């Protein structure tokens, strides 16, 4: 049987909430992000090496798997998570939803800042630098003392070997 390898390099991906608003401060919204990533991994669309979800942005190191492109995965991921967050806000916090209303012909609300950052990681050295940056983000923000203490991150996986989310592929 022929093994199908990824066609793209791993990518450092950053998505930011429009206006740097703390939309992802809610654990329910962080869980939407987690569920979306779990779906992408379970359906063999991506390999996920590292992540952190902060209150107004997220960082990932992911890689598109054979037959998928990072551009399509990014668009799908951002569209899906925005839709789920919108439904949650309609039901649980319609006042906050108004903060994301836009005057646009193609959408009523916009949660994600346009033009997310995606940088291909061509060397293991740079990948490890980005992974350290991702895992130390909550420490730098003053949320925790050690990276592995922050729940919405892959840092504990690299510290303990336990993948509480069932979606991380260790980068060696």
The gyration radius over C-alpha positions equals 16 Å
**Based on the structure given, which CATH architecture is correct?**
2-Layer Sandwich
Strand content range: 15-25%
Strand order of the largest sheet: 2-3-1-4
Class, according to the CATH hierarchy?
Alpha Beta
Record field, number of beta strands: 4
Q: Characterize the biggest β-sheet.
A: 4 strands, antiparallel
Low-confidence stretches: 1-5
Q: Would you tell me the overall average pLDDT?
A: 93
Q: How many structurally independent domains?
A: 1
What is the CATH homology-level superfamily? Transposase IS200-like
SSE series:
EHEEHHEHH
Give the number of helices: 5
What's the end-to-end separation, in Å? Answer: 25 Å
Estimate percent helicity: 25-40%
Task: Provide a compact summary of the structure.
The chain is of the alpha+beta class.
List keywords for this structure.
172 residues, 4 strands, globular, disordered N terminus
